[in-house]
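B., you asked whether I could sanity-check this one before it goes into the benchmark set. Here's the sequence:
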Amino acid sequence: MLLQFKDPLKLKTKRVVYEETYYARDSGTLEQLKELSTKRQAIEESINGSSKITPAIAREMAGGVTSPVLQDLQKLERYLPLLENLVTCVEAKKDNPQIIKWTIDLSIRWTSPMSGFSGNRLTGPRYFRLDDLRFELAMVFFLYGGLLRELALEVLPTDMVESATLFRRAAGVFQHLAETVLPPLQPMLPPDRCPEATVSMASIMSIVCLAEAQAVTVRRAEEKATSGGLLAKLHYGVVQFLEEAATLLRAHIGDWNDVSDKLRRYMSICSVLHESRSQRFIAAEYTKIERFGVAVGVLQYSLSRVQQVRPTSDDTWKIAFRQEQDALQNMLRKCDNENDFIWREKIPRKDELPVLEGLKIVASIAYQPFGLDREFIFVT
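And here's what the prediction gave me:
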């Protein structure tokens, strides 16, 4: 079972109307601004849950697509190239004080599900505002990555190859966000900043997506009856990805006032889960060569690690760990009995256990900009 962490998708935003803020000098520019507003409104209504369109009409508008996640991806991919083009044009005129004023008047506001506090029932969601059009672009890219991750989970039961590809695409989107979109924005971030607008969080999410892609890949390898030794390395490769993300999180803790504790727990819990699965395959390999004492030692250590974890946030997390704990206990009982009654091999100490080796075999799929090139002519 693949654990799920859907918080990056839980963004909300306030309305933005471009043609009421940027003054167009010709009809072509006005139409482009109106198109931007229309495309953004479709996204606003979807993520804010305020759309009045029925599922049947939404399906028809999406060309027969029934998945709400895929429908939202279609909407975003219609808006994103227009927004990228506008950002390019506005930044080319950044020395014009009138353009700067109009951008401030847009009042771009987004929530931050990756922060430690996202609001409450009395005050509603907490919105962050940053008076720069690149902030809008950054948050849209973060949403894009979140939607790709969600679609990957949606198709996982029926198509693991496509699921892994979607996770890799999401990794590429977050990588593009970290390397290209966000760096120019960093000097303008206020002390009270949302994690989604920081290079470090985008980098962390890119690595998390790679860990998820590898988790799907190793699940497929299990179904194809790949050798236990290789499966152990692939599972530990997931652990290595997650440890890399966790190290980055610790190193950049000063980038935010607070960050979601659920993200920390997700990385930690996934890491323990895949480490345990790696050790189960290692133990199985030792039983094949009748080294039952080593198998027992590996399983005992793994069980002690799993029993320390208390997943409380998500029922699917609890189920996954209950299943893993049961599998470990059953395997340990069989190996222990076999060793006691037949082999009587010494059980090694913790520092004598086999060293885990990892193999990382997935890479991100680079985001390809849409390359839209339209001119905006403003009244200045």
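One thing to flag: The chain has a mean pLDDT of 91. Otherwise nothing jumped out at me.
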